[in-house]
Amino acid sequence: MSQPFISICIPAYKRITDLERLLNSIAEQTYQNFEVIITDDSPDDTVKDFVQSYNHKFSLLYFKNAEPLGTPENWNEGFRKANGKWFKLMHDDDYFANNKSLKSFVQEIEQHPSQEVFYSAFMFEDTINNYTKIIKCNIFDRLLLHLSPYHLLKRNYFGNPSCIIIKRTVPFLYDKRFKYIVDFAYYIELLLYNVKCRYIDEVLIYVGQNDSQVTHYTFKNKAVQMYENHILFEKIGSKALKNILAFDYYWRIYRNFQIQSIDEIREYYNGDIHPVLRAMIQFQKKLPKSLLTLGIFSKSCMFTCYCITRKLL
């Protein structure tokens, strides 16, 4: 068989109803030069038995992980198994917006052959709060990203990994140490290494949110946030703090979790704490917690701290 143009990689875990919706949206695609790779973390054969009914609809390769890999290593496993020229990760609770979604990605690839990553507008479906919203990256947002990838610390303009398609030659996998910040940390890495990314101003993906997602229960988890964001600091380096967006990001992390000492971080992270981060903690410690919750006051204090600590970088 010839090499498929696209590998649609699905990291599966038990959710048959969601997986069925995704597979049906794949079966409906007008563009057909693809394979589907399913890497299964489920504790039983429910997914294996279910996907057999799709073998006649498109090329489907199923792999049961000998041991559960978890998020995001199961995403990476799909890439390792993939044969396509482009990798299209799809979470099992996301799906294609219409039957021409895949074709739209391919048309963009053909029209812009120098690009290595494409990301699209998407429809966000919040089943927890029962609302939907179209998320786009307007021209101003794209300008900000061009000026600095650290704008992703303020807002994830790329969306989740289902919203992007990646050329096989891009030499990065998702960092398996991350759970909550795994996607935008990956995008920052792409931009820092000048991987060529292009936006598609069309809703091609429906992205779901539900209370079973890893990001849902790690959002306010102090252990996860302290560990992951200090690992991220290791990756981007102290020079990132020269950018006020990165500085403000860590200011808000410490403020939101009311970090008052290095010892509180040491409960979750054993690496070095940069002098600027140490100074940031000490600066916040001197401020009334009630006032730190006020946006204008917090921003003013953050900027003052930023100016004072620049000499430490």
From TrEMBL:
Boundaries of every Glycosyltransferase 2-like domain copy: 7-140
InterPro entries: Glyco_trans_2-like, Glycosyltransf_2, Nucleotide-diphossugar_trans
Pfam families: Glycos_transf_2
Signal sequence, renumbered to the chain: none
Domain of life: Bacteria
Protein name: Glycosyltransferase family 2 protein
Species assigned in the record: Parasediminibacterium paludis
